[in-house]
Design a protein that fits this description.
The complex is a heterodimer.
Chain A lengths: L16 E5 L2 H4 L5 H10 L1 H6 L16 H62 L4 H12 L2 E7 L5 H17 L3 E5 L11 H11 L9 H9 L8 E5 L7 H13 L6 E7 L5 H5 L2 H4 L2 E7 L3 H15 L5 E2 L1 H15 L2 H18 L4 H8 L3 H9 L3 H8 L16 H33 L3 H14 L12 H6 L7 H14 L4 H26 L15 H13 L4 H10 L7 H21 L13 E2 L2 H8 L3 H10 L1 H5 L16 H9 L5 E3 H12 L4 H10 L14 H14 L5 H13 L5 H23 L3 E2 L8 E4 L3
Parallel strand pairs in A: 2-5, 2-6, 3-4, 4-5, 7-8
Antiparallel strand pairs in A: 9-11, 10-11
Helix pairs in contact in A: 2-4, 4-5, 4-6, 4-12, 4-14, 4-15, 13-14, 13-19, 14-26, 16-18, 18-21, 18-25, 21-22, 21-23, 22-23, 22-25, 29-30, 29-34, 30-34, 31-34
Chain B lengths: L3 H7 L5 H11 L3 H9 L3 E5 L5 H10 L6 E5 L7 H20 L3 H6 L10 H9 L7 E6 L9 H11 L4 E6 L11 H7 L2 E5 L22 H13 L3 H16 L6 E2 H10 L6 H13 L4 E4 L5 E4 L4 H12 L1
Parallel strand pairs in B: 1-4, 1-5, 2-3, 3-4
Antiparallel strand pairs in B: 6-8, 7-8
Helix pairs in contact in B: 5-7, 10-14, 11-14
Classes of the chains: A alpha/beta, B alpha/beta.
Chain lengths: ~800, ~325
Amino acid sequence: MDSGDDGDFDENQLQACFVLHRNREKSTGKVCPRRKSAKKGKNSESEKSGDVAGLYPIVEDPASYGALRLQAFKAVWGRIQKLIEDIVEGENHEIFSAIQQWICNRQFSDAQMTVYHTARLLSNGVDGTGLESSWAKPSASCGKQLNTALVFLGGVNPSDHRRTFDGLTGHLNVNKCHVARLTSIDFLSKAGLGGPLRSLFRQLIHIIPETTDMEILAAWHREVENQGLPIAIVVEDCESCDPKVLAEFFVLLSEWIRDLPIVLILGMATSDDAIRKLLPASALARLHLWRFSLKAPQKLLETITRAVLIESFCAFDLSPEVILFLYGYFESHDLTVTSIIRSLKITCAEHFWREPLSFLCGELLVLNSKADLEEKCSALPDMFLHHATQFSSVKGKLLLQEDEPVSKHMAASLWDTRSHKKMWKMVFQCISTLAKYGGISFGDLFCGVLQWLADSSPLSNSDQTLGPLEKLISKFRDMSGTSLRSTLEEWRKITLHEKELNAEVSQILTDFISSSTVSEVNQASNQPVNLRKSPSNEVEGVQVGVSQQIKHGVISRSALRRLGQQQCPGVSQTGLVSSNKKAEDLLRRLVREHLKPADSRPFHEIYCFRDVNSLKEALIGDTRRRVHMDLLNSHNVLKCECCPTDGELSSSLHDTTLAYILSQEYGDLVRIHNWYQSFAAICDPKLQGSVKVQEENSPPARRGRPRKSFDLGSEEEGSAKQRRGRPRKSMDAAMEEESEEKKRPRLSDAVAEENAPIQARFTRAATELQIVGLLQMPKKGNSDTVRRLCI
Amino acid sequence: MHSVGEVLEKLPPKHQKEQAALVASYKASYEKWHFQLRSGFGLLMYGFGSKKALLEDFATAVLVDGPVVVVNGYLPVVRMKNVVFTIASALWEENCAQASGSAKRRKSITGQPLLTQTLEDLLTFIQGKSESDCVYVIVHNIDGPGVRDDDIQRTLALVAACPCVRFVASVDNVNAPLLWDKQMANTQYNWWWHHTPTYDDYSVEGIYLPVHLAAGGSLETIKSASLVLRSLTPNAQSVFKALADFQLAHPEDKGLPLHQLYSSCRDQFLVSSELTLRAHLTEFKDHELVRWRRGHDGQDCLFIPLTVDALSKLLQDVYQ
């Protein structure tokens, strides 16, 4: 590459680190538009109270609304984040409390043991029976065992573990424990035992003493404010630590447990056996192990999804395609809750940047009445209202042709998102109760529903269009009486706040109960039973009533016989069938009316994020593919007119592109000479001859090597032979060669001058390919081939 | 004989207009990138072409609400303590400037970061700052040779995770994502990937790479050596000068034995222990500035593999 003129590079480019500029906003006294609007945002309380017209600065540039959007993003994301944090805390609270309780119990138990042993030792000493040593020994070995909690974290997900230990540390600190957190970085073999001890002292005593003597820690713990408080030492990723250092550390700590109330908490990502495989028996014998298990990430994801995407209103929504991508990403790519939270944040940030009207989501979150929202919307500058009319969800639709202003439609639509979300949640919960009986997991159900929404297939009774949802709904037909009754009862609870719907569900339930009572009475009085084709398990509903009759002694033996007959396949009851049908119809209607994707409503562009591709791009940096494509399609990216579009090679192509395309012709190893020749031939076909001339005039050491282009096997073989045969050329040898070269008759200057630009271009291209990692330069002693990265 | 750089300079540039248009098209995203930084993400630019000019233009145009610290990861040696110290100092100066108008805040400004403090102390200082005291950190080639080391990446990730730090970086190597585990990439750096090919020459990023395919003349060697030497600490430069002076004074000798070099350097207060000297020598050896060879009396000697003329020119370039 260009070793370049020194003057080409300013001093900053050769400094490892420098300050490009200070805070220019303050130094120049300039206040940018963002700041102005940010200040406005801070006074939002007064704005909310009444002065609606003054809320939005009337400016032509939508970018100046960036501060409002940032503020809205922070409000919305703050709400989602708080929700998630509460869920994670709630999920882990039980385990954290159990660990904290365990620490207290261990401390109490240890204290008791110490008192007990001291008393025995004292009494033995007084008696002078000579048993002192025999008592002391077992107590010492017993006392040297460190109480150790193995916390099974449910997977190798360091990003999730960090969050868990943050919570645990907070919990223990609140409950008066000294906590020190160590990671695998503290247990490196090169640092030895000093690594964890230094980190321990730093976290507990807030100093790094010159010597890592545990006596310092003991002295610190004897101070009044620390006395009696347990010291919890957390090793977050036990399996990643150096086993030798870890074992030494545990042995050292166990030597001090008489002076320091230490407990160990070890984060275990894998299995129960890991600790036994990790530590030698001598170290393991010093640990008294207790086990605690956290919930699996899948469970946590389920809880988070329920809370964030289904049950709560955050004034921000995702299209089914985006949620499906997130789920797929979690299951097949990452499996960490942290990455899901991060992805959610990316969608949120992208949406709030992209959509100029997204700041209304912040308003939607805090406003209490539709009238307030209407007022806010009507105060919007015209350009925003015009922008709203351009949304694909409303453009050309009837609603905008009416006399009412756009702002009113927009406010009404936005306000309705609350009730839509509520209904969506209700219908989904109704389906969930049904899925429970079908043995379908939450994840499968949720993805099934989303897939159906994404496909937007209409519900149909015909067998050909049965989607996952249709199949689920049809389960009503096969449902037993008991299951139907409990499903309806759950529905009644779910729909408690929707009076009409609740009345409908109650009616179906009442009808079902009354019909089953009638049938029981009929059975009891030997009335003929209406036999219809139905699965055997549908008689369960009747069994409840019959069992009650048996209890009261009113049922006859013949009725019991008939009951036995009904349990055979193909026996059913009219009341049950009609109730099943009614419930099925109700659910179908609810699904049709309320289970709609978030991006199907008017003005959804304001609160709904739907761009899966931008999320993918932000989340996954596909460096290999993208750089490869950058090089192969440089003419497309640069949009130049000089390069051929049909894939033909031309000298007008970017040099690195040309060199890269040419290198594709080879296998793993590329012979530089051949590669250069083909490069030169394309750059300037006239020079092809002169390149050969130069080759012939090159020094004998470089001439006469086998040049078998496009033949990988023989090329590799040849290179290997050359590697073995040729001695390593040192720098001083190169210097000698250079001086000898001066003595030799030189190649004609004209030819050299002619080839120089192409050589320089080729050198630059090769170096650039080396920088991007697509080419590995030769090691010393093998300077005629380069290794290519095959993508 | 012309150097590669000289020849390339004379060549008419290809696609100059198109490249400029491509880079200009990213200007429309500047505000968006700033928004993402303020939302708590770190920006990571990838794609073919040098992104140095793009990032610095972005910083100059938009990142004006805080100091901007630039780290050149393409250099062969980057000392993390210096980087962290620069960031801490920038923050401290920023606080002082803010406090100059308010007596109340001035009282709260304590503990100026010092280079004598440990790396942990400096990190604690940065971690203690709130989101409102923001500092922008731009790392060119975060996958570069100077910052590719595990320890450096861990420290950079700790810096990036601080609430007051807004982090922007570029990668060029296609295997760059392998540098980080999930914890670092998703939680600490919190990358927001941006595909920003520029097709700009890697003129600065490539200066430390050996010129394998060009003629290995002394001119190239002097320039490479000069660039490497300039990126070293003053003490390391002085140690090199001590060896070079000896070589120029005794051109017929095979080199200077280690113990003699150590005595010479200790006399000049350049090193306090042999360990420090060996650390410098390792760095020289890594960049092929010095070599070992057997002396006349059979002991190993250090020498600079340059001719007298080349060495004189190098000393002239670097030390004058």
